[in-house]
Amino acid sequence: MPGRPPLRQLWIPLALGLVAALGLPPFGLWIATPLALAILIHRAARRDGVFLPMLAAGFGWFALSMSWIVEPFLVEPEIHGWMAPFALVLMALGGALFWAVPAALAARLTVPGPRRAIAIAAALLLSDWLRGWIFTGLPWALIGHAWIDTPLAQTAAWTGALGLGAITLTLAALPALIRPLPAVVLAVALTGGLWSVGLARLSQPLPPDSPARLRIVQPNAQQDLKWDPQWAAVFFQRLLDLSAEPGPRDVVIWPETAVNFLLEDADPVLPAMAQAAGAPLVLGIQRRDGSRFYNSLVTLNPDATIGAVYDKFHLVPFGEYVPWGDALARIGIGAFAAQQGNGYSAGPGPVVMQVPGLPDFQPLICYEAIFPQHLRGLDQRPAWLLQATNDAWFGKFSGPYQHLAQARLRAIESGLPLIRAANTGISAVIDPHGRIRQSLPLGVAGKIDAALPAPLPQTPWMRWGNAPVVLLAALMLGLAITRRRPDRNLLA
């Protein structure tokens, strides 16, 4: 077919996708992302047959950035290990379609040249936004995530993570729009200007910390041992011992599904848990309500009574629930990660929780923290965010570091401190600038005693959300496709 590149030529965009992914954690080579995407967009803007090259590039991006997807299947390799390579290939191929389809449509609606570059960049940005919503959403490995370890990430307080992607794609499109030297000068100036804005924001003093003292407990319960009855007793005792260590605390926080029993079966051990905590205890635990099971965050009062309860509402498809689960349960098909029933039921939605003696907070259980939209629309603004998570599912290479990076972005976007309690790590205290004050690394049992950072005033992103970035990308796409006459380099 005319315009379709030979398959042997797809190794170049595949390599560019792999290089671009080096900007994401744990590598953090942020400059690799705009440089690799610049070459990719420059090539795509000057030729037909965009679909396959962009599919190859997207495959490289998602294969490396989402390589942790194999880890859940290796928890019990004798049962699920054979599925790991299929999961990686299908995940990378599915993600690649979010690059190839919009880029091909943008190319089909434009002629080769600068406007095609603009259209492809805008289409990729809109695709990143759409990926946070469609099929329940998976805004993981967004293009803008490459900036999290740089001062430029502070611009997310105005633009959100999607705006960081807009900056990246703007830099990447420049070489296709103007001559090389002006493109480099303009890219350096834009990056340097936004970097300076970030440094200025980071230099501003934060409000004094809240007087509340937190204790975050990380039991390091390995996923392959966590539900074994003998080891579960060991991990439970570890939670109690770490909680009871001397030191002031106004709340003790345990991670997601911290214990191997249901809330309804916990009465015999609730007094021991309350005594060890010596303060209100917030813990992840599964609970049952009739025939339904929930992945929950529960407050245990010092008198061993149950306080506020939050049920996770944004569940992991096929991990925590299966679409049409009630029907499929009849033939024995259930969710991969759920330990009770055939899958969890969803809670009602985002809430603000109250714990006596503490500022109010918004709970986020694991996966929920990757969705920035869940921070907006609450009736009242919380003073902090709490993420209880079990990153043991993600292995030790890239997944936990990427998950932590996204939690840091939530702090920047919202202007709220984020407290992270992780089962095997990385537990952390994150200030409203997204900086990690204290942390416990992967694979370590321990605790963090820390003051609760105070919030900043509401950020512009919390007021506007992604609407300005989405509208700007749609406008640029519309302007690019309305003119079909061939055009030259804009500064040629």
TrEMBL record:
Full protein name: Apolipoprotein N-acyltransferase
Gene: lnt
Entries under SUPFAM superfamilies matching the protein: Carbon-nitrogen hydrolase
CDD domains cross-referenced by the UniProt entry: ALP_N-acyl_transferase (cd07571)
This protein's UniProt keywords: Acyltransferase, Cell membrane, Lipoprotein, Membrane, Transferase, Transmembrane, Transmembrane helix
Ribonucleoprotein found in the keyword field: no
A GO term, aspect molecular function: N-acyltransferase activity
Source lineage: Bacteria, Pseudomonadati, Pseudomonadota, Alphaproteobacteria, Rhodobacterales
Positions of transmembrane segments: 12-38, 50-70, 82-105, 117-143, 155-174, 181-200, 461-481
EC number: 2.3.1.269
GO biological process per UniProt: lipoprotein biosynthetic process
Entry's localization field: Cell membrane
Species in which this protein is naturally found: Paracoccus haematequi
Main location: membrane
Positions of the CN hydrolase domain: 217-458
PANTHER family in the cross-refs: APOLIPOPROTEIN N-ACYLTRANSFERASE
Membrane topology: Multi-pass membrane protein
